[in-house]
Predict the 3D structure of the following.
Amino acid sequence: MTRKLATILAAAASTTMIAGTAFAETSPPLMATAQGDVTIHAGVEASSKTVATVMAGSTIPVEGCLPDGTICQVTYDGMNGYAPASQLGVMVDGQMALLSTNPQSVTVNQIQVPGDNASKDAQGAAALTGAAAGGAAGAAVGGPVGAVVGALVGAAGVGAAAKPEPTTITWVEKHPVAPVYLKGEVATGKVVPDVVTLTPVPDSTYAYGNINDRTVFVNPDNRAIVYVVPAS
């Protein structure tokens, strides 16, 4: 082998090693599914500017989550931001698991709040998580995914229960959202508090949500439950 050929081969091997190392160190982001419509904020605090709203069922790349598992840094349509971990789901053993539950079989990178937001870490993360749509914050209380975050209130006097069309019920059942746990009986006429963001039903006047593991149809005007889907 000539000296020139040996030099070329050595250079090629070095280039391959460097490229291989770079490839090995660059891992793709964790892909999560939006549980309900997800609002992405510029920072961890709830008052941060909204940079995007992601429709339920969309796929969202997750760069990492805060050590306490409440907020995750995400990218969507070329924009970076933060979203509640209670609205980001991944498949585990054939079941949807929220990142807020810290599923053991899923590797999630840990991130730190940017320096300009560091002083607002605890309060901001808690506020943003509390405003989450379709998810519940905190440890498992009363259910598998979250803590009690509010209460059903009063009765709106909605009159007779209005049962949606079967096709509408079927559509909602095929597009489940993460449950929110509230104090009180889930019943027609109860008013859903603002902590729960309702998901609109396409081509319908209804919105829906999952309250205490019960799918409910809601009048979005007064937030009153108009129909509770019977448990299967």
